[in-house]
Amino acid sequence: MSPSVRLQEMIRVIRGARTQGEERGVIQRECAAIRAQFRQADNGTRSHNLAKLLYVHMLGYPAHFGQMECVRLIASPRYNEKRVGYLGAMMLLDEKQDASLLITNSIKNDLSHSSQYVQSLALCTLACMGSAEMCRDLAPEIDRLLRASNSYIKKKAALCAVHMVRKVPELGELFTPAARSLLSEKNHGVLHGAVVLITELCERNPDTLEQFRKVVPELVLMMKGLVMSGYSPEHNVAGISDPFLQVRILRLLRILGRNNDTASDAMNDLLAQVATNTDSSKTAGSAVLYETVLTVMDIKSESGLRVLAVNILGRFLLNNDRNIRYISMTSLQKIVQTDHNAVQRHRGTIVDCLKDQDASVKRRALELSLALVSAVNIRSLMKELLLFLSSCPPELRAHTTSGIFNAAERYAPSQRWHIDTILHVLTTAGGDVRDETVPNLIQLITTATELHCYTVHKLYRALITDISVQSLVQVACWCIGEYGDLLLRGECEETEPVQVTEDDVLDALETVLQSHMSSPATRGFALTATMKLSTRITHNVDRIRSIVSIYGSCIDVELQQRAVEYNALFKKYDHMRAAVLERMPVIDKSSPGHTNGESAGGTIKELEPTKLTQEIVFPQEPSNQVCDLLDLLGGSGEPFQPSPSLSSTAPGPASSTAGGDLLDLLGGLDVTPAPPSVTVYEKNGVTLKLQTDTQTDTGMTVTLTATNSTDGDITGLTLQAAVPKSVQLQMKAPSGDVIPAHGLGQVTQTVLLNNPNKVSLKIRVRVCYTSQSSVCQDTVQIDSFPSTAW
What we know:
Belongs to the adaptor complexes large subunit family. There is one protein chain. This protein is α+β, with helices and mostly antiparallel strands. Among the domains are: about 450-580; about 675-780, Immunoglobulin-like, CATH 2.60.40. Helices cover about 55% and strands about 10% of the residues. The chain has a 5-stranded antiparallel sheet with strand order 3-4-5-8-7, with no helix packed on it. The chain has a 3-stranded antiparallel sheet with strand order 6-9-10, with no helix packed on it.
């Protein structure tokens, strides 16, 4: 291939290469020839060589050595060379290249050129790769061109100004007056550029946004003209008059009407007109309608208009184009929380989309279906979701099961329905459920006391049918271990009774223990269930003892430990076996987590106080009350020294009194008054008292007691505490989270404090609870403890 080959011939040779090595050789030879000609004087082929180099660059080969040639061609007076030079600059240069600074002066000169096509080349290049420095230098030239009389130049200048505003936002003030004047143009290209420029200015400057809100009526008239105009072959796209300009105007109206009642009211009628008069059978019309829906949902529109927007999205769901169905469900997902009832009308169409072949559409339909679940439609919609679960692709199973569990927990009409639904999910997709499903279901079963017999029968049937689903097998083993006596009794009103013998139950558990499909955790459930049955059956205890003893030498350490401990229970502690293996109490699911000083914010200053802040001072116990008690025993008149844990002064030596001698006869019993109970919080009928129970040299135990004097129960009670970093804090689990009304009960929580440095103790307690459907949160600060508390 000779060096003077034309571009078309070079493309033909490169495409004819049979191997990558042959293609590389052709390109290397051509690049070498191009370099050689670049070093020569002007021979009339520079533009052709640069064009070939640009094609090489498009194939991914290095072409950086042509950057300076681009600069030379841009400075050329010939239009054909200038055109190739600007094209090369847009492809080979960017703002990080030093060579880009060399073309600034050429661009400035070309922006004042007499030919509109040369000006257009300079505008396109500046809008493509102009750096911040170039934008600052050439901004006055662009502002001048925005006011030119040539529409061809003005539309390109408007788009160049958009690039400048993105690069240097402070230039927006320079272009604002010119952008406002462009809205009066008739040329659609200029209007499109003006709307894009105004959109960019409004998004970046709140003051400019307020200024352009005054032009909303003008934009509304412009949009009405496009909607109601007749056929125009110059702007018509599939029966829609300039849909590109319509979409841009609607997007600008959305920005101008957001959080503004006046602007929103001015465009409500227009949006209704666009929504009703635009044909959605073509893609262009669907694009305009979709932008209309987004605008309606983002501004302060009327309720009827929002329903109309949701109905448009509902029509999109019936479209044959999957892309349109996808964006429809994406939009419905965003508004389902605010317009739930309007979206609910299209529930049937949304559920039908679960059968779509496209994975993305199916995923969106699933998310939207789960968002539509409510207490009213839980039964019907759950049937559809369970049907979808049986045939959904593997990548959606985990998300589907998680959504079904959450919906069932929130809206279950009954506990039996809740249990049946979870068991159905475990049977269908038990391998894809979350790890917490098993403990959650066990907690649900324990609370449904009247359904224990029904549940254990149903789980036993599921166990003997299939033992491959580990989560289901674990729950079944747990239930059989807890309620095996109900299973053996065979009396169940909710389901058809099945006569089950002790051997049948033990055979099922032994099958789980011996199955290769059982995980170590499942075997642990089965072994524990077998052990528990030893107190619930009468004739097969020896068989249970034999099964347990076998696993005393199991290779799995966890299973071996269980078996060894159960064997010890049989041999050494058989008298305690019935008490140890009795039924588990009801599991309290809502136990708040522990909070220590570090997690609560590290230091007291970091915990934001609320309006309620009290300083608590412990009262000192008067010593004469104790002395009066000792006087009854014939004690002397010497004063009695109170216990150090409550005294406000340093303790002194004990007095040798008759009272003291009498107490010595009782084994050194100390007469210590009851610890003081101090009210630290009292509001909304809730009273919180603090009491110091025990105290050591560096530690102290504090009990917080909450009572309720209102007519209704206080729910959701949580207490959090924060102490200085030098103090260690541990909060035990509370006795509950519901305070009965009328003072009929109380909730207590123990706090352990460790103060190794014996610093001045401060503690801040945050109280959170729900009273009469309103959430209350307050903070109290305890700044003063007994002096003996360090």
